[in-house]
Amino acid sequence: MKLVPILASVLLVTLSAAHADEAARAVEIIQGQCAICHGVEGESSTPVFPRLAAQHADYVARQLADFQAGRRKSPVMEPMSKDLTPTEMQAIGRWFESRPARAHNVADPALLAQGREVYERGLRAKGVPACKKCHGPEGEGTDTLPRVGGQHAQYLETQLRAFSQRSRTNDNMVMQTIAARISDDELRAVASYISGLR
Fold this sequence. Notes:
The chain is mostly helical.
C-alpha cells in the first residue's frame, strides 16, 4: 500500500526536474536569440517588436510553429524559429507568460476616447464588433486569442494593417474582414487605447 505514494513522489520529482530543465533551456534560448528584440522579460526594445510579457504560452508556441513552417512570414522570425523543437516552443511560451505585464500610458486623450469606443462598442454601421468580445475587457485574450492589452500601439497598427491587406493569414481569418472595415484613424485610435490597457 505504501508503494503508490512513493511512486507518486518519484513521478512528481521527475516531472519537476524535467520542467526545470525545460525552463532553463527556454531562458538559454531567450537570452541567446530572443532578448535582443523582445527582452528577457518580454519587454521589447522598440515598438516595432511585440511585447511578449504575460502573453499566453500556447499562443506564443503556435506563432513560433507558424513562423517555422512559413505560415506566418517574417525575414527575422523564420530563421530564429527554424531549429526550435515543439517542447522548446512551449517552454519559451511558458517563460514569457510568467513575466509580469506593464501598464503604459496613452498620451493623446482624443485617441483614447475614440479607441475606447471602438474597443468596447465596435462600429455598428461598418459591421465591426467590439474588440472586447474576443480579446476581453482588459485585452487579456485567451489561450487561442492573443493578449493585446499593453501591447505597443505601433506593433498593433502594423498587425491590423497586415490583416486588412491579407498579408497576415496564419491567424483568425475574421480579423482580415474586421481590419479591412476600419479607417486609418480608427485603427490608430483603437491601437492606442489597447496599448494603455492593463
